[in-house]
Amino acid sequence: KNDVQKRNIDDMVEHEAEYCVFNCPACQNALATKVAKREIKPIHMIDLCRMAIGEK
What we know:
By secondary structure, the protein is α+β, with helices and mostly antiparallel strands. Helix content is 61%, strand content 14%.
């Protein structure tokens, strides 16, 4: 499992992702700290939508 997480995060870094968007709170809890350590902002889909309409 951790190998899959590492490969996914490495892929985000390689493609210069600014955000890691989650639709699952459990996934966000498991990965948010790991992506943040790689300077990628973790965000839930709901919060991304709120940003898009100017609420956040």
